[in-house]
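Run log, item B.
One chain of 420 residues. Sequence copied directly from the ordering sheet:
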Amino acid sequence: MAYGIHPSFDIIGTAGSELAGKRIVLCITGSVACVRSSEIARLLMRHGAAVYPVMTESACKLIGPDLIEWACGYKPITTLTGAVEHVALAGNVADKADLILVCPSTANTIGKIAGGIDDTPVTTVVTTALGERIPVVIVPAMHEPMYRHPFVLENIQKLTKAGITVMMPRIEEGKAKIPENADIYQTVCSVLAGKSLLKGKKILITAGRTVEYIDPVRVITNNSSGKMGFALAQAASDMGAEVTVVYGKGSVEPDSRFNVIRVNTADDMKKAVEKELKSGSYDMMFASSAVGDWKPVEMSREKISTRGNKKLVLELVPTVKIIDGIKKKFPKVFLVAFRALHDLPEKELLSDGKRRMKIADADMIAVNDVSKPGQGFESDTNAMLAVTKEGKVTKLDFASKYDIARRLLTIAEERICRRR
């Protein structure tokens, strides 16, 4: 029997209007962290959102659907029926959701979403949302050993590559706990705001490593994977930008969403970058590639044989510094430089970054220490210092490279807006 407007709707907008008019689907899975689901739902509502709950069977065993109905004002979806609830919430319909929040998410649900398995209301809603390009935020919660499981980490990487925002848990008492409610709220706001933050912007990104040939089969190179560059590309695209990537060598398979230009050497990359900047009115350039510093004076036209040679002496010269001439030729482009350093105190990282930014006349630089665990070339996570030309320093704490990328893009756009 219906009794009119649910009393819980009275709290909508009482703390602010940041989420006014937004429809958020709160997907709850069977982690004990679901005891906080009602708090999170009502926090979002107090800032203006309408929250539509979806629960797995395991979640229903831990907290009652009646509690969630009280919290949200809507009866939770616990099974899919002929009403095709997943389509009504996240399909190609007029009143589809603005964002899907899976909080908490078990390792089981993460694996199912990564594998495209739709055997719960939650996974089916997420699959539908991804197909409709609705933003998805996943908040993992489990015991720490489960979170560190290589297949769980691999699945999280797959989700991040698909453009899903995966929040880093708090590791406490041997458990990967969900972040504080306020942090979850801020992430929801950031993702919703970022969805159109870069709409209409053109962004050029360099990614991966360059190679310099010793002979036709041997090269001088480095360990860059291209993961940071493509995290930037994915985040920029998700935020509405048109993205072109100049890609050297790397372990990332490029997404079809981007225009990708493949190159080999530092000279190749320089030519490709300058050609793009001349041909298109780019708003930003992120020089995240690891360009080799040295190249042989002369490349051997034949494979150098080891027979009869006890040693090989190579004469090397510096390669071209791609970013150093960008601002002089293209002063309107907001240039973001990157600096990978090894085993330095934070003060020296900052000092070196500022020096390099000044040499390149860059508008901003992102500096990281690749000697730290989880911050190297092949990792899916990072931590950085972002420094602007005006001297503002932002510490980007350990997070997925996708999350770091979103923050760098947001900082860059904020600086551009302030200069207008």
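Observations after the first pass:
- The mean pLDDT is 92.
- The first helix runs from residue 37 to 46.
Flagged for discussion on Thursday.
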